[in-house]
Amino acid sequence: MTVSTEPQTDPFALAKALSGQHLIDGQFVAAASGRAFDVVNPATGAVIGQAADGDAADVDRAVAAAARAQAEWKKMPARQRGKLVAQCGARLAEHVDELGKLIALETGKALRTESRVEASVLADMFVFFGGLGSELKGETVPFNPNMMTVTAREPVGVVGAIIPWNVPLLLMAMKIAPALVAGNTVVVKSAEEAPLTVLRVMQIMNEILPPGCANILSGFGPECGGPLVAHPKIAKVSFTGSVETGRIVARAAADRLIPATLELGGKSPMIIMGDADLDRAVEGAITGMRFTRQGQSCTASSRIYVHESVHDAFVEKVRARVDAMKMGDPLDEATDIGTIISPQQLEKVQGFVEAGKKAGATCITCSKMPEDAALSKGLFLQPVIFTDVSPDAAPAKEEVFGPVVCIFKFSDYEDVLAKANDSEYGLAATIWTSDLKTALDATHRLEAGFVQVNQNLVVQPNLSYGGVKSSGLGKEASLESMLEHFTHKKTIIFNMG
C-alpha cells in the first residue's frame, strides 16, 4: 500500500487511502485476521473508511518489531534521539491543516475551534520533548569517598500506549514523544472511533524514525488493548480513558508488576468569587467547559460554583455566549461546535440531561441545531446549562462527557471549598478572584492535580498534567513525565581499591 506523505487537501480521500491498515515495523499491514471495521463521520453518519481489526496476533507482531528496534534505539545518544523526535514535530507542523481536517472528519470536532488547534499542539509536543534529550542525566552520590557512586537513567523498554478518541493526537504525543526520547520504543492502540488520523501521524513519523520504533494498531479494547497490556514484552503502560477501564488496565499491569500511568476521568470544579472579573470568568467557563468540543473533555469545568452576588448575571452571560455559537458541519470554518462522537455517547449524554430534568433542575438549552439536511443524521446536541440542581443529581456528580454544565449558587467560602472537593475525581480545578489571599488559600486546598487562578488553559507542553483520587496516577506533558515514567534509575558503584 502506498499513501503519499506529502500534505493532502482532501480528508475524504485520505481516509479511504489509510483504510484497513496497522503500521508495524515501518510498514502498513492488514490485520492478521483480515478483518476491518467501519469508521463513521459523526456529522453525517456516513462511512468514511475502515480500520484494521487488531487482535493478539497483531499485538505479537507489533511488540516483536518494537523490541527489535529498541535494542538499537536505546544505544543512540539521547540528544540524537531527541533531534529525530523534534524533526518529527517539524514535519508534522507542515501537516497541521491536513491533520486538522482528518480529525474533524472522524471525530466531529469543529476544524477552526478544535481540530486544527489540536494538530498544532501535537507538533509542538514533539518539538518540546525533542529538546529534552540532554536532560536524561544521573547524579553523583556522596556515599563513600573511596568509591565513585553515580546514578544513570535508562529506558524501560517497549511501551504500550492506549489512547482515547476525544483528543487522540495530543494524548498520543504526550505518551510517545517522551517515551521515544528516553530510549523506549512504542506500540500504540488507537481508539476505535478515531483510528485514522493517528495512523497518518505514525506514517509521517516513520519517514524519520528507524523502523519499529513507533508502531500503531487499531482494534477494540478486549481483543487488542487487553493483549497489549498483558504482553510479556511490554515494560510500561500509559493509558488515557475512563475510570472503569483504567482499573482494568491497572490490575493487568499490577499482575505483571509493570508501571502504569493512568489519566482518567474528571468532574472539575470552577469557583467564582463575588470579586472576580465577571466577563473574564464567563470566557473561562466557555473555554473550561470545552463547549466547542461538545464538553467531551476530562478536564471540563462541569461544576461551576458562583457567588450569590453575581450568580444570575453570570448565568445569563454564559447562556448568551453559548447561544451565539454556531453548531454545524465540523469542516466548515464558520462552525464553533461540532458533534458528539458516537450514537452510544449521544444516548448517554441525553440520559444525563433527562436525569437532571427529573431531579427538578432548571434546564437552559443553548445554541441551535443545524438546519442543513445533509447533517440530519449527525450526532448534534444542544448544550445544556442546569441551575437549581441538586448536588446529588447524576449530572452534578458523575462525569457526563458532554455539553452539560451544572451552575450552583453559594454564599460561604468554606462551604464551597468543601463542595468542590466532594468528588471522587481530582483532575483539574479553577478559582476566580481578585483577592490574592483567597487565591493562594484555594490553590492549596483544592484537591486536584492541575489548579489555575483566573484562567482555564488546556494542556500545554511543559505544564505537568495529571490528577489525584480517581482521576489517575502519574503526570504527563513535562520533563518530570519523561524521567519518572519512561526511565528507571540505576545506581552504579565503582570500587577500584
Automatic annotation (TrEMBL):
Gene3D superfamilies: Aldehyde Dehydrogenase, Chain A, domain 1, Aldehyde Dehydrogenase, Chain A, domain 2. GO terms for molecular function: oxidoreductase activity, acting on the aldehyde or oxo group of donors, NAD or NADP as acceptor. Keywords: Oxidoreductase. Signal peptide: none annotated. Residues 29-492 form the Aldehyde dehydrogenase domain. The active site is at residue 263. The keyword Oxidoreductase applies. It holds the Pfam family Aldedh. The keyword Protein biosynthesis does not apply. InterPro entries: Ald_DH/histidinol_DH, Ald_DH_C, Ald_DH_CS_CYS, Ald_DH_CS_GLU, Ald_DH_N, Aldehyde_DH_dom. Belongs to the aldehyde dehydrogenase family. This is Acyl-CoA reductase.
